[in-house]
């Protein structure tokens, strides 16, 4: 640079007209590349923002997840109640006293028409023993409702229809009843807490 200045000075060229390098100047190609990169990052950020917001919008809310979990649990509890009712029907037609009593809660209650209320396993066992000594049932259950109203309690409404045989005479007759069960969960299993029924046969 000093040599250039001396050369112009030797020819009498004013120093003010000597071209000085622009140290802050950016080549055009570099400037365009920087602008393109800036636009790319801007587009990328916008795309990522759209992706994240749309993904979050499609995710279920906490309330929705809670509601779904409650519905799944309700279905599971309902299935548990139905399982107990089906087991009761099977033990009933098999005249299985122990099997029926085992499906009751320890303080379970049976309310049969024409009989006093039976409370607790001992009383319930005596009633089923007397019942199966007298008659044999061949009925099918139709579960109309089975609902768990809490983690501990539920209810069910059923109907039953089939035949009843008098063991002493062998005489058979049409059997038809409507039943109401109050269910209670005992040690993780649904048990019969209260049971009452009445005949739906036409009056004689």
Please describe what this structure looks like.
The protein is an alpha+beta fold and 204 residues long. The protein has a domain at 63-199: Nuclear Transport Factor 2, Chain: A (Roll). The protein has five helices and six strands, in the order ααααββαββββ. The chain has helices spanning 2-10, 28-58, 62-93, 97-102, 120-134, and strands spanning 104-111, 118-119, 135-148, 153-166, 172-186, 189-199. Strands 2-1-6-5-4-3 form a six-stranded mixed beta sheet. Strand 3 (135-148) and strand 4 (153-166) form a beta hairpin. The radius of gyration is 43 Å and the shape is rod-shaped. This is SnoaL-like domain-containing protein. Residues 88-174 form the SnoaL-like domain. Pfam families: SnoaL_2 (PF12680).
- Spatial strand order of the main sheet: 2-1-6-5-4-3
Number of helices: 5
Share in helix: 40-55%
Poorly predicted runs of 5 or more residues: 1-10, 15-19
N-to-C span: 130 Å
- Helix-strand pattern, N to C? HHHHEEHEEEE
Shape: rod-shaped
| Number of DSSP strand runs | 6
- What structural category arises from helix and sheet content? alpha+beta
Mean of pLDDT = 82
Instruction: State the major sheet.
Output: 6 strands, mixed
Oligomer: single chain
Beta fraction:
25-35%
The CATH architecture of the domain at 63-199 would be: Roll
Q: So what's the CATH class of the domain at 63-199? A: Alpha Beta
- The fold-level CATH name of the domain at 63-199 is Nuclear Transport Factor 2, Chain: A
Radius of gyration equals 43 Å
Domain SnoaL-like: 88-174
Protein name: SnoaL-like domain-containing protein
InterPro entries: NTF2-like_dom_sf, SnoaL-like
């Amino acid at each position: 640079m000093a040599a250039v200045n001396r050369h112009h000075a030797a020819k009498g060229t004013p120093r003010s007209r000597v071209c000085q390098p622009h140290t802050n100047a950016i080549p055009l190609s570099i400037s365009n590349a920087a602008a393109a990169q800036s636009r790319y990052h801007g587009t990328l950020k916008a795309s990522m923002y759209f992706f994240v917001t749309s993904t979050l919008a499609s995710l279920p809310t906490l309330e929705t997840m809670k509601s779904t979990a409650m519905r799944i649990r309700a279905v599971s509890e309902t299935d548990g109640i139905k399982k107990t009712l089906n087991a009761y029907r099977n033990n009933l037609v098999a005249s299985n006293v122990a099997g029926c009593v085992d499906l009751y809660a320890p303080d379970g209650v049976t309310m049969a028409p024409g009989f006093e209320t039976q409370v607790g396993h001992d009383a319930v066992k005596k009633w089923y023993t007397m019942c199966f000594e007298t008659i044999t049932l061949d009925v099918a259950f139709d579960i109309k409702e089975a609902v768990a109203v809490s983690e501990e309690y539920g209810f069910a409404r059923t109907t039953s229809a089939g035949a009843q045989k008098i063991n002493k005479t062998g005489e058979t007759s049409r059997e038809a009843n409507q039943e109401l069960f109050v269910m209670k969960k005992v040690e993780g299993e649904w048990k019969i807490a209260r049971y009452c029924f009445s005949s739906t046969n036409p009056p004689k």
